[in-house]
Amino acid sequence: MLLAAIHPLCAQVPKEDLALLRTSVTIPVSDNGMHLHPFPFPHTLNPFKITLGSMMWLYQNLISPQLSSSCLYEPTCSSFSVLLLQHYGIIPGMIMTADRLMRCNRLTLHDIPSSHINPKTGKIPEKITYYQWYSEKKR
Fold it and tell me: What pLDDT score does 86 carry?
């Protein structure tokens, strides 16, 4: 009697299951013919991105408000770092962030023409296109 109760649970035919899966699951294909992953989970969960993002959030929301606003550039170095990391990736973004942090001091203010300084804020506006040479170098 017990064997009769277990038998229907174990009686699966692999060929029928695979055929059923092939007909019910469709994997999306991009324009260039590459298969897109049907589940977004592996693409959205990146441990480096989570770690860097949480460290940046902690700095911007807990540490930075307690410091004086002395950044010469707009956007601030931390906001600019987030933009660089999003646009160029982790390793190049970190290198470019280090470059920006090395330039963010009062000594570099002497090398910048006064026409580049925003008269309303007294800060130097800078966009991520400052690192455009990196994009051109990759091509």
Answer: 86
